[in-house]
Amino acid sequence: MTAQIQFSPGEYLAPAVDWLNTNLHGLFSGISQVIEAVLGAVEGVLLAPHPYLFIGIVFVAAFFFANKRVAVFAALMLAFCLFAGLWVASLQTIALVCVAVLISVTIAFPLGVVAARVKRVDDALMPILNIMQTVPPWVYLIPAVMLFSLGRVPAIIATIVYGIPPMLRLTTLAFKQLPKDLLELGQASGASPKDILFKIELPTAAPTLLVGLNQCILMSLAMVVLAGLVGAGGLGAEVTRGLSRMEMGLGLRAGLGIVAIALLLDRLSRGALQRHSPNKLL
């Protein structure tokens, strides 16, 4: 009889997870409270105005940061969410994506800058990023739920992990491709490292950084449906509810809502990029 060799990572990871839950429960509880507070504040700001007023604000902002076509398109996407009866769920989804993207960029941007300047850091991060982008996204929910229980917090944690790689990679690429003559000119003129960063490096790298932000937003939004599986609310919960009840109309309506939000965020970020760099092709 042929012997079978089986390898179960869970046998080694389960004790570690149990130890973390037992000894660092206060830390995870504190993180959950902070994330819930921030997410609740963002949701409160988004839901405070009347829907028509909110659509008007987004129209004006899109017109200012992008262009008229993007502004009209954004208003139409929000109007669809409103008249489809998905207004609250849509803004909950936007709030979740905004918080996740903000934290992802806060982590990925400085790491990308360091990786662009220190080759050892770059070499160490590349295989980790390859694994993060190869692992199926729903796998991230498993450890997040084990450490933070069900709810919006594990969904945001998993979304953050999923959104970091594109932003980090493109930040590294942006700073690696900076023209050396510009940096040498700044150094020769006696500019401080801070002035070089904010007056030369960031403006030059901005188009590529905006592409990274666009990809981070879309990757984060891809987790919305999966986030509904762990009780995160929003449009993902509506899709999950339609699936569990076999209600095609509810699932289709919520799915179209997700498409509308995805198009809205994508056009806004692309419009901002094209206005910053009209010759940039996406």
Automatic annotation (TrEMBL):
Cross-referenced Gene3D superfamilies: MetI-like
SUPFAM superfamilies referenced in this protein's UniProt entry, alphabetically: MetI-like
Transmembrane region(s): 46-65, 70-88, 94-118, 138-164, 217-236, 248-265
Topology of this chain in the membrane: Multi-pass membrane protein
Keywords associated with the record: Cell membrane, Membrane, Transmembrane, Transmembrane helix, Transport
Leader sequence segment: none
Record-linked CDD domains: TM_PBP2 (cd06261)
Sequence ranges assigned to domain ABC transmembrane type-1 in this UniProt record: 90-269
Intracellular or extracellular location(s): Cell membrane
Pfam family, one: BPD_transp_1
Domain of life: Bacteria
Family per similarity comment: Belongs to the binding-protein-dependent transport system permease family.
Protein's recorded name: Proline/glycine betaine ABC transporter permease ProW
Organism expressing this protein natively: Pseudomonas ogarae (strain DSM 112162 / CECT 30235 / F113)
